[in-house]
Amino acid sequence: MGKLIFITITIAVLSALIGERIVNLRKRCLASREVVQNHLPNCVLLKNLETGSEDITILGNGLAFISSGLKYPGLPNSGLQGKIFSLDMQDPRMKPVELRMPRNFDLESFNPHGISVYIDPNDDTIYLFVVNHPHYNSQIELFRFVEEDFSLVHLKTITHDLLGSVNDLVATGVDTFYATNDHYYTHEIMKGVVEPLLAQPWTNIVYYSPQDVKVVSEGYYMANGINISPDKSYIYVADVLDHNVHVLERKEDNTLVPVKALALGSLCDNIEVDPDSGDLWLGCHPNGWKVLMFDPKSPAGSEVIRVQNIHTDKPVVTQEYADNGEVIIGSTVAAPYRGKVVIGTLFHKAMCCDMK
């Protein structure tokens, strides 16, 4: 009888703890939040991007790079191989073009996530960094973009023990970058079930160079999108489960010093920075629970948030776009360019809208 009572009490305690953790996770995911439509004018869905456009970055000349086809445990996927697209923002046809991939590259397992571009000031060579998850592992692919035939030349694959669960990265040189790890564990059950329930600030930012790899900032619930200020002095990081964006100052040894954290009120994913104004544009999940528990009858919404004057005492946070899933599901990125913004998603469509 005593053993039975002990087992019963143990089960009851564990059930209560798990229940409390689920309630906490729902709170962090803003599970009760309803989205009020706030659409932009003249929005056009982009062709060829029906299987996701998780990250987008746009060069000063209007050439955009887009990662498509991310496969992530628990989320819908088409089963098609991952691809990289380009988009000429100055072409009124707004037609994404698939980039030709090298023959010596494993396309079957290509699973692109975050991307970043670095232009070598010495010869204007364009380097494309891509977070890749072949078989749900993490590694960085470094490509050189050949504009003459819109192709990519694979230069190398970067792996390291400190790059165990990479979400996004920002390039700082031809082979250097900062990267976010969005999970502490690498085992699928631990990172997919146990870690979300525990919801602890265990994730980090890693600096990588061929000579030096190190953790330069930690204490994030889920470090996600990362980018750099136009003057290269600051790093911006979105903590998706803490609903904020962090500002960190770069030091000469590439370590990062916290400056501030700004509340956003949404689960923000990737960060793009307007090179002229310095404004931050973030693709966000207004209700993360709907992303985790995907239901086509009640799809996850989308939200675009803009942050102006982030380095002042009074930064301005504005919702530039919101949709309840009727038009676009699961926004992850919002890339601005000369009065337009391109909105990408985890596994759904992509579109371009006029800002005014």
> For the terminal residues, how far apart are their CA atoms?
72 Å
The overall strand count is 24
Classification by helices and strands: mainly beta
Order of helices and strands: HEEEEEEEEEEEHEEEEEEEEHEEEEE
Low-confidence stretches are none
* Strand order within the widest beta sheet: 1-24-23-22
Strand content: 35-45%
Q: Give the helix level as a range of percent.
A: 10-25%
Instruction: Please report the number of helical segments.
Output: 3
Shape: globular
Mean pLDDT: 94
Radius of gyration: 20 Å
Largest sheet, strands/sense/barrel: 4 strands, antiparallel
Summarize this entry quickly.
With 356 residues, the protein is mainly beta. The protein contains 3 helices and 24 strands. Strand 10 (166-171) and strand 11 form a beta hairpin.
Supply the key terms.
356 residues, mainly beta, 4-stranded antiparallel sheet, 24 strands, 12% helix, globular
SSE diagram, text form:
Blueprint: H1 2-28, E1 44-45, E2 55-58, E3 63-68, E4 83-88, E5 97-98, E6 112-119, E7 126-132, E8 139-146, E9 151-158, E10 166-171, E11 177-181, H2 188-198, E12 203-208, E13 213-220, E14 223-228, E15 234-239, E16 244-250, E17 256-263, E18 267-273, E19 280-285, H3 288-292, E20 302-308, E21 316-323, E22 331-337, E23 340-345, E24 351-354
Antiparallel strand pairs: 1-24, 2-3, 3-4, 4-5, 6-7, 7-8, 8-9, 10-11, 11-12, 12-13, 14-15, 15-16, 16-17, 18-19, 19-20, 20-21, 22-23, 23-24
